[in-house]
Amino acid sequence: MKNRLFVLLNFIALPLLAQEGSTYIKKGNELYREGKMEEAAKTYDKATAGPQKYIALMNKGNALYRLKKYDEAVNTYQQAGSTANTDLLLRSGAYYNTGVVYSNQNKLEESIEAYKNALRLNSRDTKARENLQKALLEKKKQSSGGGGGQDKKDDSKKPDRSKLNQRQTQNQLDRLENKEKNTQQRISEDKSQYGISNEKDW
């Protein structure tokens, strides 16, 4: 299953609130681009104490993922996505990345839950929706023993199962979107207290 990682390295034009934090993030991004993942992860760590904590955690998670330190990457993404005061898209991206890591480890249950969480926060994330559908199809295939030795009968049923899964996925996502609308209302009320913008900064 091929997935893309939600990379915040493209978003360093985001207005940074703390000079020290932004310096470490920029330096970490340079090291990341040079392929020096260990050094990049350590540099991002230095920014996790400041206001850029969650961007630093996301980028650190990406570096750990590239180092194939999957458990550490998941833990780092979970830290980035765990706080309600964090930007919704960033939290959604943290869940998405967690799903990617789990998908690549073939941990389908965990990846499905992570993609659902990403969609609860950002129902417009088409990649999360696609990956959720792929993970659900893969899970169904594994549970029905869809390994080798498929005959023509199995092949003819495949499109029907796919359509059923798409329909089920769409119904599930519709429910998630309704929940997301309620969450958005709650968060917009909270944001007025914290002065957080709904607009993307990049």
For this entry, give a set of tags.
mainly alpha, single chain, 71% helix, Serine Threonine Protein Phosphatase 5, Tetratricopeptide repeat, 202 residues, 8 helices
Distance between the termini: 29 Å
The average pLDDT is 75
> For the report, how would you describe the main beta sheet?
none
Encode the helix/strand succession as letters. Answer: HHHHHHHH
Q: According to CATH, what is the class?
A: Mainly Alpha
Q: How many alpha or pi helices?
A: 8
Per CATH, the superfamily is: Tetratricopeptide repeat domain
Query: What's the architecture, going by CATH?
Result: Alpha Horseshoe
Radius of gyration: 19 Å
| SS content category | mainly alpha
The shape is: flat
Helical residue percent band = over 70%
CATH fold category name = Serine Threonine Protein Phosphatase 5, Tetratricopeptide repeat
The domain tally reads: 1
- Catalogue the unreliable spans: 7-18, 148-162, 191-202
Number of strands: 0
Strand fraction equals under 5%
Q: Would you kindly provide a brief summary of this structure?
A:
This protein is mainly alpha-helical and 202 residues long.
